[in-house]
């Protein structure tokens, strides 16, 4: 049983077909899809339901559109929280946080009350890291480890930039890391990246042979990519976000290959990299039996440390602002 919120929106429209045809939870896993959106979007949601029916997909047992949390969150195995309050023109970041705290507090409470305690929750709606933390704090009976936020899109963007630069396919770039917040302070780190060039694994520095680009333009391109897509399309990333959601959830369900890791925003308490406690922060993780583990023992140089600290500082500030709204 899988819930997608913001189900009438454009990310969900790109996402639902992939889930329903078995790309995420397995080719032999029957599914019930719950689609939650706000009441004014219900007519649009009916159209999405019709289209999913018309795909005639063998794994899709039932599609339930709803605007009610008690229906949407009942007995869930997975929740993909895409819906959030988007930033409007002239809106202060603080106002955006306040609106989203209310949404993710109520969704966290609904998870706590109705979902299975084993539910895996992926938060996509921005500001994703802090929204995820609020949802986790609002669902005390569900382990914090069950909550994660999406930084796989940033991860995929970074892999492609390196692949493009080297003239190779994106799957030849492994062990990229996104540290921190899913915002323009995120730190795409190539220091532990392996690039397969002509059948041989080499470092990103050896493959690209342009340290200035890797420490400069590469980082800013990945940090600003979301804004670049909005500028071009007049809409935010949807197709690529949906693909990243599928990658993220599939890795949770099926695990990662030995020696490989991916980026996801997870609970920072007890982490080995000196990141402040009680944040949802993007780390390199490996996954086994639906359980993530932060990859330990990676050397961090001064260049990386400064960037990891800067994005952590932004997250601490966001958290403190958001938590101050929780009691309101």
Automatic annotation (TrEMBL):
EC number: 1.1.1.37
GO biological process: malate metabolic process; tricarboxylic acid cycle
Keywords for the protein's UniProt record, in alphabetical order: NAD, Oxidoreductase, Tricarboxylic acid cycle
Domain Lactate/malate dehydrogenase C-terminal: 151-325
Binding-site list for substrate: 87, 93, 126, 157
Species name: Cyprinus carpio
Catalytic activity, reaction form: (S)-malate + NAD(+) = oxaloacetate + NADH + H(+); (S)-2-hydroxyglutarate + NAD(+) = 2-oxoglutarate + NADH + H(+)
Binding residue positions for NAD(+): 37, 100, 124-126
Active-site residue list: 182
Record-annotated Lactate/malate dehydrogenase N-terminal domain positions: 2-147
InterPro entries the record matches: L-lactate/malate_DH, Lactate/malate_DH_C, Lactate/malate_DH_N, Lactate_DH/Glyco_Ohase_4_C, Malate_DH_AS, Malate_DH_NAD-dep_euk, Malate_DH_type2, NAD(P)-bd_dom_sf
GO molecular function, one term: L-malate dehydrogenase (NAD+) activity
Function, in words: Catalyzes the reduction of aromatic alpha-keto acids in the presence of NADH. Plays essential roles in the malate-aspartate shuttle and the tricarboxylic acid cycle, important in mitochondrial NADH supply for oxidative phosphorylation. Catalyzes the reduction of 2-oxoglutarate to 2-hydroxyglutarate, leading to elevated reactive oxygen species (ROS).
Entry protein name: Malate dehydrogenase
Record family assignment: Belongs to the LDH/MDH superfamily. MDH type 2 family.
One Pfam entry name: Ldh_1_C
